[in-house]
Amino acid sequence: MRHDRKETFGTIAVLLHWTIALLFLGQFALGLSMTKVKGMALQFELIQWHKSFGFLILGLAVLRLGWHLGAGRPRPSPALSPVERASAAIVQALLLAATVAVPLAGWALASTSTLGIPTLAFKLVLIPHLPLVPSEQAEAFWRQMHGFLAWATILLAAAHAGAALRHHLLLRDDVLARMLPILSPRRLAGRQTTTESDDA
Ligand code: HEM
Ligand code: HEM
Question: Where are the domains of the chain?
Answer without folding.
Answer: 11-185
